[in-house]
Write a structure and sequence with these properties.
The chain has about 90 residues and is mainly α. It has one domain. A two-stranded antiparallel ribbon has the order 1-2. β1 and β2 form a beta hairpin. The protein is elongated. The termini are far apart.
Length: about 90
């Protein structure tokens, strides 16, 4: 609970103590952005941990993360099945 309180205090400073008066749709947008960040950071961590495990085992590059990156339409400029994904 102390960690939540600390983040709330940081948010109070960042948003100039306006968080409790913001419209619900603005708060929902903040949550959506944070969840997208969590997903992105989890993907990066998964790739890093997999790479470390593979390097330790001496097997070379991790192909699973590269395949996932190719399948993702959320990463501008990444290639998917030989063509550019939409920049959107």
């Amino acid at each position: 609970m102390q960690a939540v309180r600390l983040r709330m205090d940081q948010g109070r400073e960042a948003y100039e103590d306006q968080s409790f008066t913001r419209p619900p749709e603005a708060l929902a947008g903040e949550i959506k952005e944070e969840l997208l960040d969590v997903c992105g950071w989890a993907f990066i961590l998964r790739c890093r941990v997999a790479a470390i495990g593979t390097e330790c085992a001496g097997k070379g590059r991790v192909r699973g993360c590269a395949a996932l990156r190719r399948q993702s339409r959320c990463m501008p400029g990444e290639r998917q099945e030989g063509r550019q994904t939409p920049q959107g």
